[in-house]
């Protein structure tokens, strides 16, 4: 026998003698069946870090809930195992080791507490016993329809650190459990092995913060710490309260003095302004308000019109030339000496506030150049006796009016779906440029159908930057006075004044819903309030996304494609800020037709 073959035959002889067989199924499951029986793959340290060891503060010390909490704590640990290994349960060979580890951990919190004796749970069996033989993430996702998983993402992606968002998520998880896991599957003792699957999956793969986040642990697994205050802490609180009260009193007095001084200062400014106006007996062009921002250095093509040129172009601001009206003033159609048609926006607020709004809009529009943003051709500033301040902006005329005119105007024209998609995509690109193409970013604050103008080819142009805000570098949001249009304003901005780029995303989502449905963002018919966002989401939740689409829309796309656009609109107009995609992500989804689930 050749010497090289001797080790091979020796190995065969040994294996035969020990009667060890390696089956094909064992090889397939080798990744989930570790050979080390004494080692538990579950990481119980994450639970230890979340839970305070003080028995007075730990939820484990609550006799009425401790058994349930112990189970939910185990679900949390298994959720982290699922996140890192994509399996719901560890290998059966490790059950005893995991049981011993968990019992040891519980003993650190509650002395002498035996889980099996006190609660009746056979944890050693339950730790590795799968629900309905579902062991992996892939098996779970094959059981749940993609629409259900999308809705789960809609509710549970964001931080769950407040009761409202937590309730939305847990309610959806309970519904999912009832539909797919209730009353079926295997049980261990008196505990269903299926009960924790939806929460474990959501914490592992849906929620952006994961199962080890304190808010997620509290909401999905009821792991919460609330240490009791000692008498000394109460004493310190009382002292702090008294000190704070004194400071509030001092601040109140100081504020009153400051208000009086500011009122006197404003009165002096108004008086000086009045004297200047009295000295003006002829038209005086004003430039300092605008030039102080250095516009000419940034926009060399910007023209400063004379007031007589503007009056000539608009037939002395004839009512017949009005093509738009709003809280800011009127928009006139004008014709310049070279024959070009322009839109002339005349502010009607001639106070100092009006001056500031004018300067702000000129600065913003002149600084941005994009095919889907209205381009400024020029401006006019003048002070006229009897007529007061004149603040005027000159832009190219959009011959197809606004999106509002086509969707809801008196001469409503039904737009085909390809035209609507072109408008949606162009608007999204314009906003993406404001948010991601400029530094610092610009937040428009008033995206709505009437502020989306259409040229002769129906290319959209985002207009009216009068409410726009420039976001400072390094800031996450702006806290500012709420402005905008009812039905388009994001909830976090309307309620708390928290303004971010996602506020514009919300407004865009509303506009996209208007394009898809032909319904207004907001309507109040004799006290019956309609919000297109609430209406659309209710249909999506019922699995009727296609019912959002306007009936008899021309050249409509395939059903599965149109459903994706509805889901994009609903996602952008989600009431919770963190769930909305960015405008960059929205553009990519609209351009590529990617499934909405991949945008989170």
UniProtKB/TrEMBL annotation:
InterPro entries xref list: Kinase-like_dom_sf (IPR011009), Prot_kinase_dom (IPR000719), Protein_kinase_ATP_BS (IPR017441), Ser/Thr_kinase_AS (IPR008271), SPARK (IPR043891)
Reactions this protein catalyses: L-seryl-[protein] + ATP = O-phospho-L-seryl-[protein] + ADP + H(+); L-threonyl-[protein] + ATP = O-phospho-L-threonyl-[protein] + ADP + H(+)
UniProt xrefs under Pfam families: Pkinase, SPARK
Domain Protein kinase, residue spans: 317-600
Record-annotated membrane-spanning stretches: 238-262
CDD domains for this protein: STKc_IRAK
Molecular function per GO: ATP binding; protein serine/threonine kinase activity
GO CC, one annotated term: membrane
Localization, UniProt: Membrane
PANTHER family listed in its UniProt record: OS01G0750732 PROTEIN (PTHR47989), OS05G0423500 PROTEIN (PTHR47989:SF62)
Annotated membrane topology: Single-pass type I membrane protein
Signal sequence extent: 1-24
EC number(s) from the headed UniProt entry: 2.7.11.1
Name this polypeptide is given: non-specific serine/threonine protein kinase
Keywords of the record: ATP-binding, Glycoprotein, Kinase, Membrane, Nucleotide-binding, Receptor, Serine/threonine-protein kinase, Signal, Transferase, Transmembrane, Transmembrane helix
């Amino acid at each position: 026998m050749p010497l090289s073959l001797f080790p091979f035959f020796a190995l065969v002889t040994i294996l035969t003698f020990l009667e060890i067989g390696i089956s094909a199924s064992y090889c397939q499951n080798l990744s989930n069946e570790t050979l080390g029986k004494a080692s538990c793959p579950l990481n119980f340290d994450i639970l230890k870090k979340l839970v305070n060891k003080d028995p007075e503060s730990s939820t484990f010390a609550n006799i009425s809930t401790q058994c349930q909490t112990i189970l939910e704590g185990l679900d949390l640990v298994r959720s982290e195992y699922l996140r890192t290994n994509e399996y719901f349960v560890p290998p059966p060979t490790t059950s005893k080791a995991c049981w011993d580890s968990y019992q040891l951990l519980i003993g650190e919190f509650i002395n002498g507490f035996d889980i099996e004796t006190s609660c009746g749970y056979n944890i050693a069996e339950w730790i590795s016993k799968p629900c309905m033989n579902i062991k992996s993430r892939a098996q779970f996702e094959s059981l749940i329809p993609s629409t259900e998983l999308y809705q789960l993402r809609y509710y549970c992606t964001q931080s769950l650190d407040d009761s409202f968002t937590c309730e939305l998520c847990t309610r959806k998880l309970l519904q999912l459990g009832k539909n797919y896991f209730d009353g079926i599957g295997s049980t261990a003792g008196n505990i269903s092995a299926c009960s924790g699957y939806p929460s474990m999956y959501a914490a592992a793969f849906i929620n952006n913060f994961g199962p080890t986040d304190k808010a997620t642990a509290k909401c999905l697994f009821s792991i919460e710490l609330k240490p009791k205050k000692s008498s000394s802490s109460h004493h310190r609180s009382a002292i702090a309260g008294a000190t704070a009260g004194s400071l509030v009193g001092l601040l109140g007095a100081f504020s009153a003095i400051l208000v009086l001084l500011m009122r006197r200062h404003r009165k002096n400014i108004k008086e000086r302004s009045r004297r200047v106006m009295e000295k003006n007996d002829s038209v005086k062009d004003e430039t300092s308000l605008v030039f102080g921002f250095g516009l000419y250095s940034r926009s060399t093509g910007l023209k400063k019109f004379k007031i007589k040129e503007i009056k000539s172009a608009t037939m002395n601001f004839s009512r017949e030339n009005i093509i738009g009206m709003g809280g800011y003033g009127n928009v006139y159609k004008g014709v310049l000496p070279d024959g070009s048609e322009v839109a002339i926006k005349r502010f009607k607020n001639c106070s100092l506030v009006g001056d500031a709004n004018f300067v702000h809009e000129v600065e913003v529009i002149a600084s941005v150049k994009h095919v889907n943003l209205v381009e400024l051709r020029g401006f006019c500033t003048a002070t006229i006796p009897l007529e007061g301040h004149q603040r005027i902006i000159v832009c190219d005329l959009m011959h197809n009016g606004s999106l509002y005119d086509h969707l809801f105007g008196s001469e409503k024209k039904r737009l085909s779906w390809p035209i609507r998609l072109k408008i949606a995509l162009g608007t999204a690109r314009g906003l993406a440029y404001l948010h991601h193409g400029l530094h610092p970013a610009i937040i428009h604050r008033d995206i709505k159908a009437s502020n989306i103008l259409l040229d002769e080819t129906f290319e959209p142009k985002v207009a009216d930057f009068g409410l726009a805000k420039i976001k400072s570098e390094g800031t996450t949001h702006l806290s500012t006075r709420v402005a905008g249009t009812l039905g388009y304003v994001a909830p976090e901005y309307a309620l708390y004044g928290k303004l971010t780029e996602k506020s514009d995303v919300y407004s865009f989502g509303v506009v996209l819903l208007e394009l898809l449905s032909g319904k207004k963002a907001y309507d109040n018919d004799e006290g019956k309030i309609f919000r297109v966002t609430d209406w659309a989401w209710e249909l999506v939740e019922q699995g009727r996304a296609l019912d959002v689409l306007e009936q008899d829309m021309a050249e409509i796309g395939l059903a599965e494609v149109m459903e994706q656009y509805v889901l994009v609109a609903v996602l952008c107009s989600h009431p919770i800020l963190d769930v909305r995609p960015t405008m960059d992500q929205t553009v990519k989804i609209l351009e590529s037709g990617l499934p909405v689930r991949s945008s989170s």
